[in-house]
Amino acid sequence: MRRIPSEVMQAFAREIFIAAGSNADEASIIADHLVEASLMGHDSHGVIRISKYVDWVRAGQVVANRHIRIDKDKGALLVADGGFGYGQVIGKEAMELAAERAHKHGMATLSLRNSGHLGRIGAWPELLAKRGLASVHFVNTSGFGILVAPHGGSDRRLSANPIAAGVPVQGGAPIVLDIASSVVAEGKIQVACNKGEKLSEGLLLDGQGHPTTDPAAFYASPPGAILPFGGHKGSGLSFFCEVLAGSLSGGFASNPDSPTAGRLVNNMLSLVFDPEAFGSAGAFAEDVKRLTVWTKASPPIDPGGRVLLPGEIEAQTRKEREANGLQIDSETWRKIAASAALLGVNSPKV
Ligand code: NAD
After folding, report:
1. Could you tell me the domains of the chain?
2. What pLDDT was estimated at residue 188?
3. Can you give the pLDDT of all 350 residues of the chain as single tens digits?
4. Which residues have any ligand 1 atom within 6 Å of their CB?
5. Cα–Cα dist 90/95, whole Å
6. Model pTM?
7. In a 3-state reduction of DSSP, which class is residue 317?
8. CA atoms of 260 and 257, how far apart (whole Å)
9. What is the pLDDT at residue 75?
10. DSSP strands (E only) in 53-210
């Protein structure tokens, strides 16, 4: 395991994306997003993705320097197309539009199809909360990302389908929930595979539909499947991510025969609320504050334990990694360095 200062990794990632065809602004946005995800402990959606993104852009599955296109504008409802551009750029542009409309109309609905990988979905409610807005986001992957068995099923039918929500907090960091509806995000299986580690029980089925702890069984032929979290509950939420993010946007629900099944496409439904438009923004902020204090005051079930709110664990990890550097395993580093070399970029000495 290497420890790499986040600013070194950011500069390296930026250089790689420029060499892969992105302009300097786009390269910075992608590098910032991936480094931020690693800083926050979501290694599965952090710099481990660099080599995959380079493969995809080289194969024409992601298009560099693409911007969001609005296909339908009904004021508080926008339907947009990402044109297979980098999700970090498309997602940011989508959130900026949604914020502007929510401030204007009190709420906004943004339905986005055909975006490249939107990365750490928590980044989007976080951006909105910093602008005083509460939001919830449903995401699906329309073909390439079919990885999850439905409750009671034995093979891949649904995507990992994350749901994220955020709310601003008076005088503090926003509260951000950011969860895949699968019991584990696919990237975490990739991380375990790279580290040669076993996974916990209850996460995976092998290609024959039997429970397994071997991450390699997931990538074998026939491939394994991830289980939904919370059995029928996660499975049901995942189904509705497919409907709300995929079917509604026109970007398709999980479907191996969809026209975009050969590339990783994220679709997202974002619902954004301006508390000010609902009544007293001050009363809303006070009530949220009261809720955080009340929730956290529950006596810990484990001696010495603490009740954490969504987003707190990421803030703790961020503090530690800002001080000590990102944790990058040898296999991930080898893959990033190989992608860089392919593009004529030298790896930093670490
Ligand atoms: P996870 O299981 O680590 O859950 C993270 C959430 O749970 C966060 O909101 C965190 O603050 C909260 N949390 C964690 N520990 C907690 C505790 N002890 N007490 C209270 N709250 C706690 O994350 P995941 O489900 O594996 O998802 C990982 C990442 O993968 C996310 O960033 C997600 O957006 C991303 N993802 C993206 C896609 C995509 O298609 N773009 C698909 C799936 C997942």
Report:
1. 1-65+315-350 (1.10.1530.10), 68-183+227-297 (3.30.1370.60)
2. 84
3. 889 999 999 999 999 999 999 999 999 999 999 999 999 999 989 999 999 999 999 999 999 999 999 999 999 999 999 999 999 999 999 999 999 999 999 999 999 999 999 999 999 999 999 999 999 999 999 878 899 999 999 999 999 999 999 999 988 999 999 999 999 988 889 889 888 899 999 999 999 999 999 999 999 999 999 999 999 999 999 999 999 999 999 999 999 999 998 899 999 999 999 999 999 889 999 999 999 999 999 999 999 999 999 999 999 999 999 999 999 999 899 999 999 999 999 999 88
4. 42, 44-45, 117-122, 139, 141, 160, 162, 164, 177-180, 184-185, 188, 266, 308, 310-311, 313-314
5. 9
6. 0.96
7. helix
8. 8
9. 98
10. 69-73, 77-81, 107-115, 134-141, 162-169, 172-180, 204-205
Q: Which atom of ligand 1 is nearest to the CA of 117?
A: 41
Ordered DSSP codes for 186-255: HHHHHHHHHHTPPPPTTSEE-TTS-EE--HHHHTSSS--EEPBTTTHHHHHHHHHHIIIIIITTTS-SS-
The structure tokens listed for 246 are: 């995929």
Q: Are 226 and 184 in contact (CB under 8 A)?
A: yes
Contact 172, 279 (CB under 8 A): no
Q: Round to whole Å and give the CA distance between 88 and 181.
A: 21
What CA–CA distance (Å, rounded) separates 266 from 49? Answer: 15
* 121, 139 Cβ separation under 8 angstroms: yes
Q: Atom of ligand 1 at shortest distance to CA of 177? A: 9
- Identify the residue whose C-alpha is closest to ligand 1 atom 26: 185
Which atom from ligand 1 is nearest to the alpha carbon of 179?
25
178 CA → ligand 1 middle, Å? 5
Q: Which amino acid, 204?
A: L
- Burial status of residue 118 (CB atoms within 10 A of its CB: 0-12, 13-18, 19 or more): buried
Residue identified by tokens 């995942």 is 238
- The closest of 217, 248, 229 to 177, measured between CA atoms, is 229
Say how many Å lie between the CA of residue 162 and the centre of ligand 1: 8
What tokens appear for 247 in the block?
Answer: 């079917």
